[in-house]
């Protein structure tokens, strides 16, 4: 009965239901109106995401999501030659993979609201600190991700969205508008703090509202309790449930 | 593909995806393994919940939830004659309504894990403070809920669960085992703080584990990224996706 909003992405999507997470905040904001479906795959890049595409979004679904966020790139942008090379995908292929994902979703449902989200910026120093804390002396001494390279992927993502006529959120740019973004928004140089999650939540809600998927304008699935007459509850439920 | 875990209840369920909420924590714990579906209806009692039953759980569903939490009673236990009288349901009817809900779910799926959760205890003083802060001089001077009365509903809920052979969580008793439960677990004498939410989360996970619905024992829907060979990703996806 309720529409689905699907969140497709990597670890920043997968962990979005932790305390203060942007996915949980969306589920709360759309509570009684839409279901938020979590499809986050930690460590995945767009190349691997393609293997899941037809399984998560089979053609002919009777109820495809009304909206999907596509939030990859943080792993694609791992440096070739770095310690996370296994996850690296060249930027041109990243764009091509995103194009395939969008094209498939459009085929599933031409009216689906599709929102491409760029990776967040990288705090290289924070990333190094995290590596030292986690791996001690064995820690990498060269960065596995740089902010500059991730910025190239963010630019590619936004360009592609414009080309395909779908909406996008340039998280890489947006976060860097705020002084001290490195520690304010990122907890290990890459993943989001509660404040970083709040930025994603606000940006997603803003785009959803622009596209008329505004929780405050959507109907409740069933009557609000204040509309139910204690002595004659049937009346409130008549239209939807009797 | 993933099983569904459905949370059916009143406001304490509806707001369970706020920061630190027990529903969001469940979604996070079962991420990549099961979907947590939010069906919380603020202000609802079991009498009104019955109107939704066949809509939320139609017979013949191809994929009924593998587990459902039923978490009502906080509104049923509003005092007859108090300011929330509209929501009051006598305890015998409350038990009868819960019985109808359980019976219907069993009909939907004989293997569904059903967990009845009692209402939390009431901090009467906290409830008064909240009323004064919210309504000022117009605030009620008599309690609309008492801890003793809510305890009668909690007892009825647990007895019914035993009679029907389904699992239950006596939240009313559990919370009162901790000194200072009034402010520690309840933010307005009735609804849960983050610490109160953590108690519900822990208790639900405990019951789920006892019933073999243990996230750590459940398979990932798709390969963990560490299992994917960067040079030959097809291999990891072969079993599930090719």
TrEMBL record, chains A, B:
One of its GO terms (biological process) is lipid catabolic process. GO terms for molecular function: hydrolase activity, acting on ester bonds. Keywords: Hydrolase, Lipid degradation, Lipid metabolism. It holds the Pfam family Lipase_GDSL. PANTHER family: GDSL-LIKE LIPASE_ACYLHYDROLASE FAMILY PROTEIN, EXPRESSED, ISOAMYL ACETATE-HYDROLYZING ESTERASE 1. Belongs to the 'GDSL' lipolytic enzyme family. This is SGNH hydrolase-type esterase domain-containing protein.
